[in-house]
What does this fold into?
Amino acid sequence: MEGMFLKFEPGRSPFSITHDDQLLFLGSCFSDEIASRAKDSGFHCASNPFGTVFHPLPLARFLKETIAGSAEERILKREDHFFSWDASTLLYGKSNDEVFTKLQKVRLEWRNQLKTASVLFVTFGTAWGYSYHDSMVVANCHKVSQAEFRKELSETIEILE
It folds into this structure.
């Protein structure tokens, strides 16, 4: 059994958190899981306002546009519902305007939380992304045909930038 574990001693974190801190979690399902455990332990926190997002590029786009206070909301219609290419299916509506309003409301709330947060935890799930019609990596494909997307592996330098 000893060969199944990587032995290392993690260093001490350069910062600490207390129950007075506001913690924000963004990214993969790991963010949701840690946020849930933090809440259960009495911490003040929020997690994934656009739902779980696995790829770093949509996460970065969300942060940049939210902080800037302006976003080009990329909305699509599928069957009788409207969705955002930047969010999970949790944010949907019966009209373009309804989804746009929901997205803007969530962005404003999250922007205000970012201003007062003590720590932002960001977790990445994958470097594999799906570009819709060769434009940008989307956060969610919303059951649109696979033929509409190009699968690509993001380069490390692209993710770092």
